[in-house]
Design brief:
Layout: E1 2-5, E2 9-12, H1 20-27, E3 33-35, E4 39-40, E5 49-59, H2 74-88, E6 96-99, E7 105-114, H3 119-133, E8 149-150, E9 164-167, H4 175-182, H5 187-203, H6 216-234, H7 243-260, H8 263-277, H9 281-299, E10 304-306, E11 309-311, H10 319-326, H11 330-333, H12 342-359, H13 365-370, H14 373-376, H15 378-382, H16 386-393
Antiparallel strand pairs: 1-2, 1-3, 3-8, 4-5, 5-7, 6-7, 6-9, 10-11
Helix pairs in contact: 6-7, 7-8, 7-9, 8-9
Length: about 400
Amino acid sequence: MARRDDGHGWRETCVTVRDLPAAVGEYTGHTDCYLSVGRFSGRRAVARLLAQNALYADVDYRRSPTAGVVHLDPERALHGYVLPALDAARIPAPSFAVASGGGGLHLYWFHGPIPRAALLRWTACQRIIHDALADLGADRAALDAARVLRLAGTVHGRTGQLVRILHAGGATWAFDDLADEVLPRSRAEIHDLRVQRALRRGAGVYAPAPARQFCGAGLWEARLTDLQHLREMRWNSGCALPAGHRDAWLLWASVAVSWIAPPEAAEREVLALAEECGWDEREARSRLGTVLRRAVDAAAGRRIEWRGQLVDPRYRARRQTLVDWLGVTAEEQRNMHVLIGDAEARRRHRDGEAERRRSSGAVARDEYVGQSLQQTRPWESTGISRATWYRRRCGQE
């Protein structure tokens, strides 16, 4: 939760889920209060995200160029323009709608909690919703997973208007179901997805399998998770990093953020990481400014030439390069998901192939050799020669 106080500036408070109802009650009637629907480990940052619980949109329709919307009250804007625009884009109606008190609407689509690893698909849904409502004043800055929106029951400081609920009680979705509805597909594909979903539920195999391959954002999200785990193993994650280890860890953590966070939020995320690790804002901007500029260039569609091809300008690295930069030991790699060197990758591949062979009925070599005729020598127990035993086995006697 957060509050803008003229006397004290911006103040954020971390509230547990158990204490949230009481905290919301304390904020009721106060001015410029905000709430995030995500759950974080400590401070509010995508890098600290534990679970996301909703899609959302911030629609500032009073600034929209669409004729007829600017002077409408929130209820008429919602029902006369916003909901029809969502229906035209084949997006379900929101679960919850709030009048922001400043000529805008906050829309929420509640879903079951998803981990940060699912943010790639979550962000794709956010962009589809934004594009559907862009002509009505949807705020592009509200795409990131650490966004805060005004809390219902509080007061908008500039207008003095109450932030109030317009619609509540809508569906709480399973995230995969909601994503299937939001992401662009033909009606036939949507129907087929619903049939497949019902069949999976009936068979008890609805839970999706973990990803085995990654795109750029998915890979860097997994790497950021490993980087945070590495920090926890080596040092207390709540303390500043030792000076000799800070530069490399922060560089690659910032690169990961540049791949998974919108450029509007990447700067805030990088500065938050730097502050945790012991850098002030000036030093962070000086050392990590290129990472942030490349994220902005990537969002603008710019490309750079690399080995004769035009590629995304954001930094990238092979896994072995990251392991070497960070000095990740063989023991530490055993606890990582993707932050592993070539030797560990070969070991995992070898163990995986052995497990696959065992599951298909193959036996271990020691067991196979132990059961071989050369070891059991059944002709000795019957008192005949080896040649005679083989002839009898083949039916030649």
